Amino acid sequence: MSSTAEEGIPVGTGHITCDLHSSTVVFSKLSSSYPLKLLSPRVAEHGVAIVYVMSYGGGLVGGDCMQLIVEVGKECKLLLLSQGSTKVFKTRAGNRASTRFRRSSPKPSPSLSSSLQAVTTQSMEVSIAPDSALFLLPDPVTCFRSASYTQVQTFHLAGSASIVLLDWITSGRKSMGEDWDFLRYYSVNEVFVEGRRVARDVLLLDNSFLDTQSVSSSNATSRAPLRTLKDRLAPYSCYAMLLLYGPQTHGVVTDLQAKYRTISIFKRAAPERFLWSLTPVDDGKGSVIRAAGVDTEDVKNWFKEVLRGLEAVVGIDEYRKVFI
Question: Per DSSP, which regions of 144-271 are E strands?
Fold first, then answer.
């Protein structure tokens, strides 16, 4: 269940607040407005809740702007999922409903207004209370040809809180011949523990120079040809970053560390279909996994298997709703 903009919620915003009552996670606030949509199904596992973060129309259009605030109460376990990939459609001119300012807001400058209409933006601000956990495990972002997308996610953890954060992107609609053909993708993830920043991950994939740079005929022959994203990211069509931090992730991290120690490094004649690495964070209190695959399904299936230890944390039936 979610509220609507008619009840005074600013356009494009959402708010999730949950607390533990007895053994049940209860939402004191679960509100959203177009183009953001929040749905929470009933779950049988004690102390666990699921919220699906979705958009109307099956995707986001250039100019859409969404802001989500999440507050996870003490001893709660919250899974934030999606239903299908987050589709970002190409940039189009026009005054989108999700970018209109409230009447009380000052009129934006022409340059700012143009920028907001061109770029699809999504931000998330999360606070996680002691002994609680957030599992942000959405489907990947898929940017269509000529799309431009910016995502900023900030997480504030108490000292005994835990987080599993997955951020991944595909090369586009391969069935339509798209292969890293979007204009720009910018993603920032920051994690703070007791106010101290322990991780900051930034990914910028930029093709926009292909539309804006003009090379004069006089010096065109002296310059090397510009390399597109497709040239630089081939042969992989999916890149992912997974961050695990906190006591409720220790079992999964231990298994991943053991798996990583078995990897042998040697020269190959051709690139592997799937690659992954593991890096410790904050003196080993957390870990960052990076993965790349020729096919998105390869990446999804790998994550589904290596994170299966979360079944003991969130419940078997609840984990089955992830990576469908």
Answer: 148-157, 162-170, 184-193, 196-206, 238-245
Q: How far apart are CA 127 and CA 153, in angstroms?
A: 11
Q: How far apart are CA 77 and CA 313, in angstroms?
A: 9
Q: What's the CA gap between 116 and 224, in Å, rounded?
A: 33
CB count, 10 Å around CB of 36?
Answer: 26
The two tokens of residue 165 are 């954060």
Residue ranges of alpha helices (H) inside 84-159 are 110-118
What are the tens digits of pLDDT across the range 82-125? 988 989 998 665 555 554 443 333 444 444 344 444 789 999 99
Alpha carbon distance 91, 62 (integer Å)? 4
Structure tokens given for 175: 């069935």
Which residues face 148 on adjacent strands? 184
Helices (H), 54-151: 110-118
